[in-house]
Amino acid sequence: MERLVQYGLDAAAGAGADYIEVRAERRHSESIQTKNREVDALSRQETSGVGIRVLCGGAWGFAATGVPERRAIEEAASKATAIAKATAKLRQQPVSLAPEAVYRDTYQSPFVRDPLEVPLEDKLELLLGAAERMLGVQGVVLAKGHFQAWRVDKVFANSEGSRIRQQFTTCGAGIEAYAAGDGGFQRRSYPTSFGGDFHNAGYEFVESLELAEHAEGVAEEAVALLSAAPCPTGTFDIILGGSQMALQIHESVGHPTELDRVLGTELSFAGGSFLSLDKRNGYRYGSPLVNIVADATVPGGLGTFAYDDEGVPAQCVDLIQDGAFVAYLTSRESAAQVGTDRSGGCCRASNWNRIPLIRMTNINLRAGEGTLDDLIADTPNGIYFETNRSWSIDDRRVNFQFGTEVAWEIKNGRRARMLKNPMYTGITPQFWGACVAVAGPEAWRLWGLPNCGKGEPSQVMQVGHGSAPAKFSGIKVLGAG
């Protein structure tokens, strides 16, 4: 792939580009879905190509090719440069890039057991074995299983002199139980409702999830929800479980801190952001217990890498310190626009045929103290929410509503009856301002979200979120009956 990258650099320079980035990528992926005792879908794919992004006359141009031949790459380089020159005629403000050093490096995400080499029979035995246990619980009418794995090899080079090769191996899995009866229809998922949990790791991570061992309990909870009491409506102290915190962070912190949304250059899917530039350096985002970072260095995260797709090294960037907003997620271009010395290393593309966009890395809430049981014991009257079922948030990331698969009433510091169809709602800065406790390191976990959408043409990116369960006071809860 190094040879293909050099073809792109040489051709774009010859076409008159002022600055050049070339990415060559090869991707292998496998996906398995099971339904009850059968395979529902099975796919294995490979894709490869070269993407070329250039600056010419202060404007961007991009083109890509899936043909690994010199002539095709030269044509893509010429096209990217022609697009940049045409765009430059209309652009009022020329693009400038925050400075970055030159790097020559190689990185490989660690794994023990290659998930793409594990026999298909072993994966099916895992998923179908879990399904058998779920279907053995009376009242369960549907049992689903999911497995995904992929490997990405990429070579990046730019006209400043950087040459970087990276390889990522990723996998994950999950199960779902559906129950039906007089109480309607209910679902329970494990370990998350995102199609499973995912890490940059080998098949050993899938094995660590212990799907079969959790299958019966997941199914029993789905059935129990049929006869559970409806979630009450009112104002309560609430505790959110770790995977629900992951989505809460994603939607109400991750997306609004993306600087391209603030600047209005990216509004698709998740809309804009309420975090206007006047809110930098001190806007009260949450209580003093809220400390959130964008950490591309944490082991195993889906947002973990050595360099982003602009050749900027992975960093741990403080976004919210002691409740105060202090930084955005940035690219080299957006950092220069707002006068920041350096990019935060948050610019990534989902594939070789897509331009890099500002994307979340691992957006993590730093741990506090104690365990989930401690949070519950310190709550006289509240509700504990677990596993996301639905979400809605406005296009400025302010007003949101989340529903979870299950909740439990908390009475006198103890978990009491199960509640079905629970929802809660809030205003982003008010909600985070109501954070009164975050559990400690022993309860903290890094979750993998494999399907964050952004951009047109659409890009589906993998991101991570680390959190422990957290408690919020005086939150509006909505019972859906």
Number of domains: 2
Outline type? globular
What percentage of the residues does DSSP assign to strands (E)?
A: 35-45%
What Rg, in angstroms, do the CA atoms define?
Answer: 24 Å
Structure classification? alpha+beta
- C-alpha termini separation: 57 Å
Q: Give the integer mean of the pLDDT values.
A: 97
Number of extended strands? 25
DSSP helical segment count = 10
Oligomer: single chain
Low-confidence stretches: none
Task: Describe what this molecule looks like in 3D.
It contains ten helices and 25 strands. The chain has helices at residues 2-14, 70-88, 120-135, 203-208, 211-226, 242-254, 259-263, 332-337, 372-377, 428-433, and strands spanning 19-35, 38-56, 59-65, 104-108, 140-158, 163-181, 184-190, 197-199, 229-230, 234-240, 283-284, 292-295, 316-321, 324-325, 347-348, 357-358, 363-365, 381-393, 399-411, 414-420, 422-427, 435-438, 445-454, 459-467, 470-479. Helix 3 packs parallel to helix 5 (211-226). The longest helix is centred in the N-terminal third of the chain and has 19 residues, at 70-88. The chain is 22% helix and 41% strand. It is of the alpha+beta class and 481 residues long. It folds into two domains: 2-227, PmbA/TldD fold, CATH 3.30.2290.10; 230-479, no CATH class. A hairpin with a 2-residue loop joins strand 2 and strand 3 (59-65). Strands 1, 2, 3, 4, 5, 6, 7 and 8 form an eight-stranded mixed beta sheet that branches. A five-stranded mixed barrel has the order 10-18-19-21-25. The mean pLDDT is 97. The protein is globular, with a radius of gyration of 24 Å.
